[in-house]
Amino acid sequence: MPAALFEVNICFGIRMPMIRVMSLLAGQRRFTLWAAAICVLAGVFVLAGHRFEPMAVQVGLSAQPLMRALTALCFVIAGLSLLLYQVAPARASSRATLACVLAVILTALASAMLGQDLLGWDTGIGDAVERTVWSGTDGSGELMSGAAALVFMLIGSAMVLMQQQGRALWLGQSLAATAFLLSLLALLAYLFGADIDRVVPFSSMTFHTAGVFLVLGAGALTLRGGQGWISEFFQDTPSARSGRRYLVSTIVALPLMAQLRIIGQRELDWYDTYFGVAILSVGSIAVLAFLNWTAVRMGNVADRQLENLLRVNRTLSGINTLIVRVREKDELFRESCRVAVESGGFPWVWIATTEGGSPQLRLQASHGGNDALMADALQLLQAHGVDGGPGLLRQVMQSGAPAIVPSLRQHPAATDGEHRSLRLLHRTGLRSLVLLPLRDGGRVAGVMALHSEYSRFFDTQEMVLLDELAGDIGFAIGHIEKDATLDYLACYDPLTGLPNRTLFMERLGRLMQASGPQNRAVALVLGNIQRFRMINETFGRQAGDDLLRQLATRLGAAAALSEHVSRINADTFACCVAGEDMESLGHQIQSLFGAAVSRPFQCGEQSVMVEVTVAAAVHPPDGADGETLMANAETALRKAKTTQSPFMYYEAAMNARVAETLRLEHRLRAALAQGHLELHYQPKVDFADQQVHSVEALMRWRDPERGLVPPGQFIPLMEEIGLIRQAGAWALHQAVTDMERWRAMGLQVPRCAVNVSAVQLRSKDFVDTVLHAIGGFGDQVCQLDIEITESLLMQDVVQTRRVLQTLQGLGVHVSVDDFGTGYSSLAYLARLPINALKIDRSFIVEMEQGPQGETIVGSIISLAHALRLVVIAEGVETEAQASILRGLKCDLMQGYLFSKPVPFDAMADMLPRAASANTVVPSA
Question: 649 pairs with which residues across the strands?
Fold first, then answer.
């Protein structure tokens, strides 16, 4: 970003409380532009009169001698220079450069003419100009008076110097003021009727020349009215306003008084009375103006000090009012900056603090400035100081004492980087800066920076109030932090960081209220550490506290919603769990604390196993509100501890159901270990030849006490407790073993599909499990297929695709089960390595209910064939369904119309001998 544009952007981000001053400066700029225009037009008018002698010029100037051509040319140069200076966007622009060149040319011409007038130099410049523009025959004679040359030289030098800063600017304005007074002297001499011919320095200066000189001097004097010593008259203070009125009154009143005095004045020997009065008037004006300026300057200082104190007082009052109602640090910082800018009139205020023990300061709040600039300035102000010491901000943080930068132009303690930052701020209109430490007791919590548009704004009186302001903000920071600590202790357990009983009951109530519309059950679970007192007495309280923290971490990781875990007393934890039905909810409750205490805890140098007594109450049957539910859960916990039962529900009926589930889980684990699981096979029949194309292996549990257990009663439980991984690996291995047995019996072995659950597919060793299973084929071709559901296929598509591609490389085919019931994406379906689609039974049933169902099935078949996939119709039970599917060109069918799932031997009877390929499938 160019420097000029960057400076403009910064200035727009800063609010200066100087609206009336800006209005005065705008009027001053307009006056300067008018003055420049008058000078240019007057010079051009006179040059035109010399060159062309128009009637308007002759009539208008017939009463006075005509202004000389060189003087008119200098007025044009001076007016153009003044005009370019005023409209130049920046001192380094091309317009400013051209203006400076014109001012130098003006000074050089005036110096040459002054030398010719005083020393008799014959430069030839005047004659050349006169011959160029003069239209008559007489172009000789004195071309410019010494007074005119002197005024031009003063004006040109003033405009060159006023492009600088500091003392050069003051000198330039003084030269412009001198030129203005000389012009006023000449003009008043004409007005008072003085004999100009007797006043040698002004003998050849015309009345018109004196008037234009007066305008030019005034314009040059106000060229930079907002800076230098002339700016004292443009301040927005009572003293400056009085000074402006007094100065105008002096300029008008004294000449009038001198005019009255001329009436009775005697003539002097070497000049007349009137010119003496003119000298007296101008001298009086100069003296009175200087005295007036001095008074204004002193008044401005006093007024500014008073206004500064009022601004700081307003800031202090506003922030003290703010502290009473603010309860958060961010709001305190933000509002403090806003109050300091809006009430105190500071153009820019910001606050930076350290956090987490880091030595780096971070900007917390800022008002009135540009955040991008603030980040850069903050980084530079944090630079190392002189000889590697801390920078300004770090000095304030370490010493706890404020740092004042009276002038942003230069600060002796600042580093090079800090100087760059301070100068950057200076270009935005800021002049001084104070860094206030925000002390909270014995520590410094941060730094508050206030910028001012005045140099040396922050003196002793302001600093007393500002130090009090910083102390109040520091006190508020400590108060807010203490309130936050108290609020935390009111809602959280300080040892474990978990919510305490109060916050837990509030969250429980919200969860119960939210579960109402969905009719979801909410269980309140309490877990009490058995013999916790013995742990404290044996290993010490520190070890007991470590155990509590470890248990809290495990419970938070195990719970689906970690914010619902709480420690409600010394050795009891609580959790609330929502579920769709009582059965699944019961298992979640049982496994919650079981998983947390399954591993030993480290208590000092000892590893300790602990047990937890768990009790639960369920909403809505056990309580309509949180307090009732908690009371019932505590009742169940006391009963469980009395009966030494590891788990108990408040409701007896649910205890029975959970107990039955737990017994079923125990027997299921035993069944897997003792070989009570078996595979039944259901054939898939090819429409083309009515022969067994392949089979699906279905897991069955033959319980010695209950007989054959339906898969719906134990497969979901296996998936829930994680037993499905072992059972699934057994099924893959058993299917390969059975196929090899059929081959050994001389049968024609079909491909066999085994269902795979989500738990198996997401397992890291699933591919190794399949590889181990197909190793049973030996040198034979792999005839194993796997079936996965459509919803499982779309979970983690990238990982699923990687696994399936690996399996296909091993010769394993993949079928999508229950197609149409999920939310498959056709794009993914085309990209995934799939061999077959199984249409869900619900679509097969709907085919007989209307044409819409048949259309849906036909669309699925067409889609699958377009993707070169085999289509299997699942759950075919009637000849009508088979007829429709045959017409839709379905590839394979599976269902009770052909055969229900049968054991190994029954399936062997359906398979043809390897030597014969024409055996018809028997009816089921």
Answer: 616
How remote is the C-alpha of 658 from its chain's centroid?
A: 51
Pick the closest to residue 17 from 422, 315, 459, 405 (CA basis): 315
Length of the chain (residues): 924
Distance from C-alpha of 754 to C-alpha of 783, rounded to nearest angstrom: 11
- Which residues have a Cβ under 8 Å from the Cβ of 775 and sit 6 or more positions away? none
Query: Could you tell me which residues are beta bridge partners of residue 684?
Result: 694
What is the rounded distance in angstroms from the CA atom of residue 497 to the CA atom of residue 502? 14
Q: Which among 526, 503, 523, 527 has a CA at the least distance from the CA of 623?
A: 523
Span 593-617, average pLDDT = 83
Among 870, 760, 892, residue whose Cα is nearest residue 816: 870
Query: 619, 624, 621, 622: which is closest to 636 by C-alpha?
Result: 622
The three-state (H, E, C) secondary structure of 33-69, written as one string = HHHHHHHHHHHHHHHHHHHHCCHHHHHHCCCCCCCCH
Nearest by Cα to 719 from 672, 677, 760? 760
Whether 282 and 186 have beta carbons less than 8 Å apart is answered as no
pLDDT tens per residue across span 70-111: 788 888 888 888 888 887 765 557 888 888 888 888 888 888
Q: How far is residue 232's CA from residue 244's CA, in Å, rounded to a whole number?
A: 10
User: Of all helices (H) and strands (E), which one includes residue 353?
Assistant: strand 348-353
Q: What is the DSSP string of 514-562?
A: HHTTTT-EEEEEEEEETTHHHHHHHH-HHHHHHHHHHHHHHHHHHSSSG
* Cα gap 802→766, rounded to integer Å: 12
SS3 (DSSP) at 449: strand
Q: What is the pLDDT of residues 142-166, one digit of tens each?
A: 456 777 888 888 888 888 888 887 7
Q: What tokens does 464 get?
A: 């007393």
Query: Can you state the percent helix, strand and coil of the chain, rounding each to 5?
Result: 60, 15, 25
pTM for the predicted model, two decimal places: 0.39
Angle at 558 between CA 552 and CA 563, to 5 degrees: 65
Tell me the C-alpha distance between 699 and 710, whole Å.
10
What are phi and psi for residue 837, nearest 5 degrees?
A: -120, 135
849 Cβ neighbours under 8 A, 6+ residues apart: none
The identity of residue 179, as a single letter, is: A
Which tokens go with 414? Answer: 């600042």
Contact 347, 341 (CB under 8 A): yes
Residue type, 421: S
Q: How far apart are CA 335 and CA 480, in angstroms?
A: 14
In 3D, which of 646, 622, 625, 624 has the Cα closest to residue 635?
A: 622
DSSP 8-state class, residue 214: H
Q: Residue 326 is encoded by which pair of tokens?
A: 């603010």
* Residue partners of 473: CB distance under 8 A and separation at least 6: 319, 323, 332, 336, 438, 448
| CA-based R_g, the chain, Å | 50
Q: Residues 6 or more apart from 822 whose CB is under 8 A from it?
A: 789, 790, 791, 793, 794
Which of helix, strand or coil describes residue 326? coil
Q: What is the pLDDT of residue 870?
A: 92
The whole-angstrom separation of Cα 120 and Cα 122 is 6
CA distance 413 to 692: 95
Residue showing tokens 């923290």 = 549
DSSP string, 748-792: -PPEEEEE--HHHHTSTTHHHHHHHHHGGGTTSPP-EEEEEEHHH
User: Which tens digits make up the pLDDT trace of 876-920?
Assistant: 988 888 888 888 899 999 998 888 999 999 999 888 887 544 443
Strand order in the sheet with 403-405: 362-367, 348-353, 443-452, 432-440, 403-405
Beta bridge partners, 576, equal 524
Question: Strand locations in 94-153, DSSP E?
Answer: none
Q: Partners of 352 in the beta sheet?
A: 363, 447
| Dihedral sign of CA atoms 118, 123, 124, 125 in order | negative
- Contact criterion met (CB below 8 Å) for 907 and 900: no
Neighbours of 577 (CB within 10 A): 20
